[in-house]
């Protein structure tokens, strides 16, 4: 008798489960991913990658505006640093702003005057910096690679090679 009660209680559940009303469908193509303009009209945005203080290896992107006339976030640059793709590396080596730092972002790259350049070629992105790079932490390397990858192409899958005063990192990809 007890087995009959259990079967009687489960029977409605077993009968209703396959008929929950959701039918299987094929994959629906929805088009290209959405794109978003992050810099104000007339200005370029530089995507920089900083390390989250909550995790030693987690990088987070930050957008800074770079106008075509040598301004960064509305202020004129104090020296002759380049605009364009190379400007992103200069901004990266300047480190997080006060508000970015207060939000928990930091850098593992050395601070100070660093000369940097980015060249786009058929082989990918080539970044050259005036510091040693082979002994940088993995997070610092990824800061360089991810920022260089998106500096000229906005494509994190771009192949990047970073050349420093002591050797070369890469070719590699951004892991973020």
Can you tell me about this structure?
The protein has helices spanning 2-16, 87-94, 98-102, 138-153; strands at residues 44-52, 59-66, 71-72, 75-76, 105-106, 116-121, 124-129, 160-163, 168-172. 25% of the residues lie in helices and 25% in strands. Residues 36-42 and 69-79 have low confidence and may be disordered. Strand 6 and strand 7 form a beta hairpin. It is built from four helices and nine strands. By secondary structure, it is an alpha+beta fold. The strands form three sheets. Strands 6-7-8-9 form a four-stranded mixed β-sheet, covered by helices on one side. It has a three-stranded antiparallel β-sheet with strand order 2-1-5. It has a two-stranded antiparallel sheet with strand order 3-4. It is elongated and about 80 Å long. Helix 2 (87-94) packs antiparallel against helix 4.
């Amino acid at each position: 008798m007890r087995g009959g009660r259990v079967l009687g209680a489960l029977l409605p559940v077993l009968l209703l489960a396959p008929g929950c009303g959701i039918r299987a469908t094929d994959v629906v193509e929805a088009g290209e991913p959405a794109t978003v303009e992050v810099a104000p009209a007339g200005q370029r945005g530089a995507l920089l990658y900083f390390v989250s203080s909550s995790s030693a290896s987690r990088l987070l992107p930050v957008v800074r505006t770079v106008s075509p006339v040598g301004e960064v976030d509305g202020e004129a640059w104090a020296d002759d640093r380049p605009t364009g793709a190379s400007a992103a590396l200069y901004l990266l080596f300047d480190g997080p702003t006060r508000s970015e730092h207060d939000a928990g972002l930091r850098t593992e790259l050395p601070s100070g005057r660093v000369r940097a350049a980015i060249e786009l070629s058929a082989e990918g992105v080539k970044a050259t910096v005036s510091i040693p790079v082979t002994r940088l932490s993995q997070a610092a390397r990824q800061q360089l690679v991810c920022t260089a990858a998106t500096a000229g192409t906005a494509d994190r899958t771009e192949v990047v090679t970073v050349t420093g005063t002591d050797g070369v990192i890469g070719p590699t990809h951004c892991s973020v």
